[in-house]
């Protein structure tokens, strides 16, 4: 290992030792959401009336707009998260744009129009060539001075908070902040991830379920690697395998809290699955949680005993110990998002050099320096995005389009969360905090 203070220890000597415990910052949101009230019916009716009027007006604007104004309007609608209201109109407009572009490849559109049209068509799975930008670059591949354009101005959005209010009240009833002080309280940040998967109103259950289970996974993660001893980890994994609340008494008190939380979340999931005629998914949910426990347990043994495996073995195990457990599809996204998360979390997970991380694992396995390892992780992420973009543009994947979109959105929110190789989930104040405030906290005018 590169870190000089990573001492080799006998595995039998560390089974009763707690890992260096990090003290995480409390949630930056306090009770701002859980105390929010939706009881004012008059105000709510005013919002609905205003939304209906804005929807009709936007529809008229969309049908009347042409050329660059049309592209800018479609971009704004999609950025606002209301494109689901105009799906047919947008698809028809983009089809016409694509057909007209093929007929007139030598148009004199500026860089703003060309780049916006290129991105929108690519996002909607039209095979547009990068050659459309050739007229804006010199022979040495540098931009022509006259080609620089201005950015499209930002616009405000109207977002309802009801789901977040209900979610934070659900979370508050468990009082995990006082019972599990070693664990991260990030249910609001988890909700942002749920929103990233599907923001449309009809996917309310999906958003809330993603948030609840991401917080569950976060607690499991922190229990295994930020507080429990290896002996306690083994015991918890064993009890988790049995999936029987009657055996909870053998666990230490803090693990009883975690186990009850898992069982409570699971029971809610069972009720919802039965209500929606989806009971067949229940065994898969249960097995996924068990699988997660096994993966966390194995990883923590590697770390505490300083017996890190080869990089490929580590990555295989991490497919089940990350913030989400994705199916093994032909789509390459889950494989490369993991290095992105590792780049962000490496600094706090190594406990000031006291414990090895996946970066140290890569350094040892490949025989490279830390700087080279980080550079190669960045390349893994960049190449992953290229593969995903190419696959998406082809539109021929055997994976259903809706699932591909969710995987793409997973990559996008991971990019935001671990921006600039920092862990925005653990410390959200710099990146995620302002984004969440802009979406769900700051007052917005009715008219935009």
Notes on the structure:
Among the domains are: 41-147, Terpene synthase, N-terminal domain (Glycosyltransferase); 228-307, no CATH class. The chain has 17 helices and no strands. With 448 residues, the protein is an all-alpha fold. Helix 13 runs antiparallel to helix 15. Helix content is 58%, strand content 0%. The radius of gyration is 25 Å and the shape is globular.
Short descriptors:
single chain, 448 residues, mainly alpha, Glycosyltransferase, 58% helix, globular, disordered N terminus, disordered C terminus, magnesium, lyase
Q: List unreliable stretches of 5+ residues.
A: 1-8, 147-159, 323-333, 444-448
Indicate the structural class. mainly alpha
Q: What value does the average pLDDT take?
A: 81
Examine the secondary-structure arrangement and name the CATH architecture of the domain at 41-147: Alpha/alpha barrel
The succession of helices and strands, N to C, reads HHHHHHHHHHHHHHHHH
Characterize the largest beta sheet: strand count, sense, and whether it forms a barrel.
Answer: none
Question: CATH topology of the domain at 41-147, anyone?
Answer: Glycosyltransferase
Shape, per Cα inertia axes = globular
Question: What does the radius of gyration come to?
Answer: 25 Å
How far apart are the termini? 56 Å
Our estimate of the beta-strand percent is under 5%
Number of E-type strands: 0
For this structure, what is the CATH class of the domain at 41-147? Mainly Alpha
Corresponding CATH superfamily of the domain at 41-147: Terpene synthase, N-terminal domain
Number of helices: 17
GO biological process, one term: terpenoid biosynthetic process
GO molecular function, one term: lyase activity
Cofactor: Mg(2+)
Organism: Salvia divinorum (Maria pastora)
């Amino acid at each position: 290992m590169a870190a000089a203070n990573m001492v080799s220890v006998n595995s039998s000597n560390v089974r009763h030792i707690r890992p260096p415990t990090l003290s995480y910052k409390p949630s930056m949101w306090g009770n701002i959401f859980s105390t929010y009230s939706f009881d004012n019916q008059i105000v709510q009716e005013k919002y609905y009336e205003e939304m209906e009027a804005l929807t009709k007006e936007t529809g008229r604007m969309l049908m009347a707009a042409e050329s660059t104004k049309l592209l800018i309007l479609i971009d704004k609608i999609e950025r606002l998260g209301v494109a689901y209201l105009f799906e047919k109109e947008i698809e028809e407009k983009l089809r016409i744009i694509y057909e007209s572009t093929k007929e007139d490849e030598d148009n004199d559109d500026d860089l703003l129009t060309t780049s916006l049209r290129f991105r929108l068509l690519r996002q909607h799975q039209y095979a547009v060539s990068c050659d459309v930008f050739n007229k804006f670059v010199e022979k040495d591949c540098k931009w022509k001075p006259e080609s620089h354009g201005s950015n499209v101005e930002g616009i405000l959005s109207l977002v309802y908070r009801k789901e977040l209010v209900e979610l934070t009240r659900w979370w508050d009833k468990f009082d995990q902040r006082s019972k599990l002080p070693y664990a991260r309280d990030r249910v609001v940040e988890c909700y942002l991830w749920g929103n990233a998967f599907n923001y449309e109103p009809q996917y309310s259950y999906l958003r809330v379920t993603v948030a609840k289970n991401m917080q569950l996974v976060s607690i499991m993660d922190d229990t295994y690697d930020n507080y429990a001893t290896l002996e306690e980890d083994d015991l918890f994994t064993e009890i988790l395998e049995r999936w029987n609340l009657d055996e909870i008494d053998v666990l230490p008190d803090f693990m009883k809290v975690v186990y009850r939380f898992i069982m409570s979340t699971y029971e809610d999931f069972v009720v919802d699955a039965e209500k929606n005629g989806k009971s067949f998914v229940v065994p898969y949910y249960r097995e996924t949680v068990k699988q997660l426990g096994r993966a966390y347990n194995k990883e923590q043994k590697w770390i505490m005993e300083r017996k890190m495996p080869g990089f490929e073995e580590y990555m295989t195990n991490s497919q089940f110990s990350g913030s989400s457990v994705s199916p093994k599809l032909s789509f390459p996204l889950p494989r490369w998002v993991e290095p992105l998360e590792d780049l962000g979390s490496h600094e706090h997970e190594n406990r000031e050099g006291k414990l090895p991380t996946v970066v140290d694992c890569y350094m040892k396995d490949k025989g490279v320096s830390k700087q080279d390892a980080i550079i190669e992780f960045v390349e893994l992420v960049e190449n992953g995005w290229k593969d995903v973009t190419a696959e998406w543009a082809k539109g021929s994947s055997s994976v259903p389009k809706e699932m591909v979109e969710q995987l793409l959105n997973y990559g996008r929110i991971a990019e935001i969360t671990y921006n600039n190789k920092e862990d925005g989930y653990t410390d959200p104040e710099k990146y995620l905090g302002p984004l969440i405030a802009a979406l769900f906290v700051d007052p917005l005018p009715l008219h935009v």
